[in-house]
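Notes on consecutive records. When two proteins share a document, each keeps its own sequence and its own C-alpha cell line. Never mix them. Below: protein one.
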Amino acid sequence: MFLAGAKNLEAKKEWINELNVFPVPDGDTGTNMTLTIMSAASEVGALTDPDMETLAKAISSGSLRGARGNSGVILSQLLRGFTRGVRKLNDLDAPAIAAAMERGVETAYKAVMKPKEGTILTVARAAADRAAELTDTAENLESFFDGIFQHAEETLARTPEMLPVLKEAGVVDSGGQGLLEVFRGAIDGYHGKEVDYSQFEASAAPKVTKISPQAEADIKFGYCTEFIILLEKPLPQEEINRFREFLDSIGDSIVLVADDEIVKVHVHTNHPGQAFERALTYGQLSRMKIDNMREEHQEKLIKDAEKLAREQAEKEKEPPKENGFISVSVGEGLSQIFRELGVDYLIEGGQTMNPSTEDMLNAIEKVNAKTIYIFPNNKNIILAANQARDLTEDKEIIVVPTKTIPQGISAMISFVPEKNSEENLASMTEAISRVKTGQVTYAVRDTRIDDKEIHEGDIMGIGDAGILAVGKERLQVAEDMVAEMIDEEAEIISVYYGEDVSEADAEALSDALAEKYPECEVELNQGGQPIYYYLISVE
C-alpha cells in the first residue's frame, strides 16, 4: 500500500505543481512531496523480508532524511507519527490504523510553529477524524478506506473556503491534493492494483558503493583474459589470422603469440567463454586467468574514497571552531557574496529545488564547529532545517528563519563573534525584520490573485506577502514593485540581477532607482540566479 501510494504521487507530481497559488515557474509542492516519499520508498524497496518494525523504520527514516519543502516535511511527520503507531503490531485493523493516523496528525501539527487551516494538515486531520468515527461502523477495511478517502476528498474541496488566497486563485491546496494522491494509491494497492516494485529497488541502488556510469562506460570490455593453447598440430598463418580476427570481434587489447606448439593469448573481452571455446578447437588450454577489470577499478575507487575519508577524519581531528555557517544559495554571484561574508558551506538550492533534510545533515557534518548557524533563505526550507537541527546531537544548531536570500545576507552581516548564540539569533532576527524583499519573474498560467489579473507570460513583482506589480516589461515591473516596498525609513536598495539579465539592463534599473530615490543608497550585484530576473531588497 505504501509503495502504491508513493507511485501514484509521483505520477501526479506535475499536476500538483500546477496547483501552486502563485503562477510562478517553480511551483514545486508535487516535486517536494514526491522526492520525500520516494526517499522512503527507496529504503522500503531495498528490504528483502521486512516485518512491521523494519518496514516502519524504513518509511520513517527515509522520509525524514529525504524531506524537502514544507509539504514534504509535513508528509514526513505524518508518516513518522503513523509508523510509530504501528511498528510494534503484527496486524492492522481499523482501530489500529485510526489510532496511527491520529498519532501522525499530532506529530505533524507539532512540527509546524503556526499551523494554518486549509492546508495538508487540515486534510490529514479530517481523514484521521473520519477514521476514528468509522472504526465501529465500517463493515470491513474496504468500506473503512473508502469512507476515509471520500471525507478527505470533500475536505480538500473545501480548502478554498478556508484560505481566501486559494479561492481567489481558483485552486485547492496543493499539499492536501498530494496527500490525497497518496491515499488514492494506497487504496489501489490494498485492492491489489499492480505496482512496479523494480523502480523502488532501482532508486535504492545508490546506497551501494558502485563505480560511476562514466567510469563503467570507459571500460568497454570488462574481463582481462589470458591463456595458453597447447596445440595438437601447428596452426597455419591463415588460421592464426582468423583467430585474431575472431578475438578482435569480441574484444580489444589483443596479444597473440604463436609457434608450432603453443599459442599465448591475451584479450580484453566481455565474453571469456567464447574465447575459450574457440581456442579449444585448436588444442588443450593451460594457465587460464580471468580478471574483472571493472571490479579492480571499483576497488581503486573504494580505496580513493577511503583515502578521502581518512583525510576528512584527520581534518575532523582539528579542534572545532566556535561558530560555523551554512547557507542555502543559488547562482554563482549570490554564492560568492555568502563566501565573502564567511559562510563555511553552501547548499545549492532554493526556489527551484528545495534541499532535503539529509542535505542539511550532510552540510552539518562537514562544518567543524561547535555552534552552526543555518540560513534557509526560503520559507519552504525552514522546516527541513529545523528537522535537521532536531536530528543533530553533537553540535548546537541555530536555524535563523530567513525567508529570502537578502534576509540571509543581512543576517550574516549582523553576526557578532563576541555574542553568544542566543544574542546573535536575536540580533539576526531583528535584522531580518528590517528587510523587505521583492522578486521579479514571469507567470506560467492565467490566474487572478491579490486583485490582479495575471496572464501567462506576464512579468510579476512578488513581495513578502503577495503580488506587488504586474506588467509586460521587466524594468517597469521592477520599478513598480520597489515603489510598493519603499517607505520613509528606507535607506538601502540592493539589486541582485539574474542569469537572464544583461549587465546593461541591470545598470539601467539601478540608475532609474537611484534617480527616483536619491535619499537611498542603491547597490547593484550580479546574482546569477535562475528563474528570477531580479531579487531586490529594501532596508
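Protein two starts on the next line and is unrelated to protein one.
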Amino acid sequence: MTVASVDRSWDRIDAWLAEHAPRTYESLRPPATAEAVRALGDELGLEPPADLVRSLLRHDGVTRESAGAFLIPSGDLLLGVDRLLETGRMHKELWGEEGSQEIPDEDYWHPEFLMFTRRVTADGLVLDCRRGPRFGAVGLFFNSGGTTFRYWASLAVLLHELADSLESGSPLACGKADEYVPIAWDGELIWEPLPVPRPALRSLLELGASATAPAPPDIDDDRVRPVKEEGWAGEYGEFCLSFVRGVDEREVLSRFGALTDADGPRTRPRTREQAYEDSRRWTSGFLPVVRAGRCGDWAFGIEQGHWEGSRSEVMRRLSRGTQAVSIFFSGHFTEMSWYEDGELVTVYDTRRSYRMPGEGDPFSLLPGLPPHSRHASRRLADGRVLLGRGVAPGKADATTGPRDICRKVCRVVADHFGIDLPPESLKGPLTSATLLPVLPAPQVRRLRPTGLEDRMAAVPEPRLRTALAAQMTALATETGLDAYPEVADVLNRLHREQELSDGDTGDESPLGIRLRTVLADTAACRHHPVDENRERLVSYEEYRAWEDRAAAATALLGLLRLPPRDAAADILIRRQDPYCRAEFATQLKADRG
C-alpha cells in the first residue's frame, strides 16, 4: 500500500467531514504554532516524529467539549499540544527517571513513549519516539496490560486508513478485533461496530442440569471468611438477612423467586456451608440459594455470597400485602431496607449520608441507628455528590468498625420490629431453595443528542411504540432472543398492538421465566467456569453473545414496562445494524402518515 502524506490524508478527512459531518468538522482545532510544537519536545525531553508535527500543524487536536467531536474508532480523542504536555508530564511523574512508580517492563511503557490520544479511561494511542527501526510507530496502551505495537507503522498510515474508510464507507479495525464503519448522522461522524457472526449458544443452566455429578464449588475465601462473633452476623463474613411478617418459609422462598415444580418451591434442608457451596457450583448455574425459617410472626431468609434481599425488586415482592425489612452486610458496609406493601419506606446505607427520592428519614423512623461516618458520601448544596469510602476500615472488634456498625443496625431492627431471632436459629440445616432471580426494574436511559429525540417527540406515543416494536424485533433477531417462542409470541402481539397484562409479562409468566433464565445464564457465564480439565466451558465469543442477548432481554422488558420514550434508548443503543438510525427515522416518518 502506498501511504499518503499526513497533509494529503488530512485534506481528504477535512473534505469528507465538511460535506457529510460539519458538526464533527467544527470540533477540529486550528493549527498549532511551530513554536509550540518545538517546545513540546524540548519540555518532555523527546523527539516528536515528523508525522505528529505535521498533524499538529494541521489541527491542534480536537475540542473536547464539542458535540460530536472527531474520534477514531477506538474512541480516542486526538490531543493538542496543551494536553500532550499535560499527559506527558503525568507519565514522567509516574514513570520518569524519578517517577513515583516502577515500570513493570519495557513492553509496558518507556519514557520515550508519547501518548497522543486519550479515552475516558487511562488508555490511549502512543507514538514510539525512540530512535531506531520502530521510531514513529503507533501502539495501543492499555493500563491493565501495557503497550502493543502491531497495527500501524506510523501516524501517516493511521490517518491514511481513516481517510480511506471515510471516503469508501469501508470498515476500519483500528487495533481491535471489532471493525467499525463511519456513519454520517445529523451532521456528526459516528463510528459504529460491524456485527460479527455469533456462535450457537449453549446454556450453562442446561449443561449443569445434565451433569452427572456436582462440580466442586468455586470458593472465594477472602470475601466470605467466617468471623466468630455474637449476633446475627456470627460466622458470616458477609450476609443478607431478610424478614417478612405473617408468611411461612415456603411463601418467603416463593417471593424470593425460588425455582418451582408442580407443588411449589423446590426446597431441601441445607446448612450455611452447603448453601454457599451450592451457589458457587457451575453445575448449579451459580444461582443464589436462600435458607428460610420462622421466628414468631416473622419468616426470614438468609443468604451468603448473594444479596437478592437487598434488591428493590425483591423487597417489593417480599413486602406485598405486609412489611419486609432486610439487612445486607458486605464485610465493609451495611445497608438496611424497609418496605411496606410493595412500597419503599426507608433505606439506611453506611456508604451515603443523603437520601434518594422516595426514601424516608431512617433516623427518625428507626431511632438508634448509628450516625453516618465522615467517610460516607454526601450531597453538596448544588446537588453534586461528594464520594466517600462509607466506613473507615476497622478491626473486627473495633467499636467503630464495619462489623460493630452492622451489629448496632441489627439490634435496632430487632427492637423496632419486635423480631426475636436467636442467633443459633441461623445455624444448622434450614429449609432452602435455589433462586431464579426475579427480573430487574428497567432502567431509563437517554440517547446522546443526535436528532433521534427530536424525531420521537414529533410522533404520537402509539405510533412511536409501533416503530420501537419493529426495532425491538430486529434486535431480538440480531441476538437470537426471538428464537424463544415466549419472546416471539409477545413481539407478535406488540406488532398487532394487542394489550398485554401482568399475566403475560410478569415475573411468573412464561415470558418472565424465559427472560429470567436468559439473564441467569448470562450471569453464570460471567464466572468464566472451567471443567475438570480446567478448560473453559464458555468461550469468549459465547460470553459476548450471551451479554448481547441479555441486553436485548432487558431492552424488551423496558418496552413492556416503561413509556415508549423512556424505553427507546435501551433498544436503539443495543441495535447491531450500524445503519439502524436511518431505518428508525424512516419508520417514524412512515408512521406519521
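For the record: Confidence is low (pLDDT under 50) at residues 394-398.
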